[in-house]
Write a structure and sequence with these properties.
alpha/beta; binds flavin-adenine dinucleotide; 11 helices; 8-stranded mixed beta sheet; D-Amino Acid Oxidase, Chain A, domain 2; FAD/NAD(P)-binding domain
């Protein structure tokens, strides 16, 4: 039985950032990251769209993402001059119909109050600023003038992982199949190989597998996989301005953004449309029937496009309120959660890792007060909703 002070289950962006910040902030004990898939192909991180935005309605979400954006903009300071995650600071453009405009305006006010650099545009201004956009049916849009865009998600997680391992964090390939507890404390985990790792603290960074991991300790965490598709398409008629477009979100939720000389797009299903099979198959009818008509209506150049590839990812979905659960379990206090980001965990991974490090080292938050994101709201069944879930 190998003892570690901290075992982190999951080596995606959240687990790797947790290990990295623990070491950065001076944790002198031993840390192991246990990861079942060290090809990193099936985790959420590598399958993400890499988007970073300030456009949230909850101050904590704005702060979590701003931490990530600052890091990305100052990457060399953190990881050295060679570090590169391909940041494209092209902004987010969240569009609204007349019905959605009051919420968009309300969110914009919260964002500005928390330091965001966004502007609210009416339909005429949208048409002027984005010549490729058909503003018909729109009442406005909120555009990120800076501090928003996208990165290569794999590269971001790899920077954390590499730096953590360089500082002595052990990366163990294996699947956790049991969590051992005694007298209200986690004592270790057992891997599929039969190996047992004892630990002083267990960090749940298992992404879409977080609910299953918590269940091994008899804890109910409503976080599980939700299947999402991303389609890559070519648009021969795209202008240079369209290639420089922001990540644009339709009032109905269809989103697209440039990806190299191509574009990517997607749409989250309504609750009753959620796929129930968690394989890696892509539903091409979802693009043809639900996405393409909306894309072509909003961007006339997208009437002639060709899907050239597509992928499936499994969102780390928090069924209670689609927001992160961060912090210790109130009774099993050496079991820490950083889960359920539901589509925004890539940008919030760095700040969440930093938060985990602060909890371990100081017993409380120093950078962002995440008390409202704690597990307690699950026990109390008190959801903390975002007003604009993307
Ligand atoms: C299609 C798609 C698009 C997205 N777009 C964005 C975006 O634009 N912006 C954004 O911020 N976020 C986005 N996300 C969400 C983001 O990718 C996730 O929230 C984030 O990557 C979560 O990171 P993680 O480290 O918690 O999870 P993961 O990267 O999934 O890491 C968890 C790891 O835990 C491992 N694991 C699980 N259970 C066990 C076990 N029992 N034993 C050992 N290992 C285990 C898994 O193999 C996995 O590698 C998107 C997600 C998807 C699917």
């Amino acid at each position: 039985m190998t003892p570690y002070d901290i075992v982190i289950v999951g080596g995606g962006v959240v687990g790797s950032a947790s290990a990295y910040y623990l070491k950065k902030h001076g944790f002198s004990g031993t840390i192991a990251i246990v990861e079942q898939d060290t090809s990193w192909q099936s985790g959420c991180t590598a399958r993400s769209c890499g988007g970073l935005r300030q456009q949230f309605s909850t101050p904590e979400n704005i702060a979590l993402s701003t931490f990530g954006i600052r890091l990305v903009k100052n990457l060399a300071e953190e990881f050295g001059p060679e570090a590169d995650v391909g940041f494209k600071e092209q902004g987010y453009l969240i569009l609204a119909s007349a019905t959605g405009l009051p919420v968009l305006a309300e969110n914009h006010a919260v964002q500005i109050a928390h330091g965001a650099h966004n502007v609210l545009l009416d339909a005429a201004a949208l048409g002027q600023r984005f010549a490729w956009l058909n503003p018909e049916g729109l009442a406005g849009g909120c555009f990120g003038l800076s501090h928003e865009g996208w990165v290569d998600p794999y590269s971001l997680a790899a920077l954390f992982r590499k730096a953590a391992v360089a500082q002595g964090v052990a990366l163990i390939q294996g699947q956790v199949q049991a969590v051992d507890a005694h007298a209200g404390r986690i004592t270790g985990v057992t891997l599929a190989s039969g190996e047992r790792l004892a630990c002083g603290t267990l960090v749940n960074a298992a992404g879409a597998g977080a609910g299953a991991l918590a269940a091994m300790a008899g804890i109910d965490l409503p976080v599980g996989p939700r299947k999402r598709y991303v389609y890559v398409f070519d648009c021969p008629q795209a202008t240079e301005a369209l290639h420089k477009a922001p990540l644009t979100v339709e009032p109905g939720g269809i989103y697209f953004r440039p990806e190299g000389r191509n574009f990517i797009c997607g749409l989250s299903p309504e609750e009753h449309e959620e796929p129930t099979v968690f394989d890696w198959e892509v539903d091409h009818a979802w693009f043809e029937e639900r996405i393409w008509p909306g894309l072509a209506e909003r961007v006339p150049a997208f009437e002639a496009i060709k899907v050239i590839s597509a992928w499936t990812g499994h969102y780390d979905y928090n069924a209670l309120d689609q927001n992160a659960v961060i912090g210790p379990h109130p009774d099993v206090t050496n079991f820490l959660f950083a889960n359920g980001f539901s589509g925004h965990g890539l940008q919030q991974g760095p700040a969440s890792g930093n938060a985990i490090a602060e909890l371990v080292l100081h017993g409380g938050y120093r950078t962002i007060d995440l008390t409202r994101f704690g597990y307690e709201r699950i026990t109390r069944n008190e959801p903390l909703y975002e007003k604009n879930v993307i």
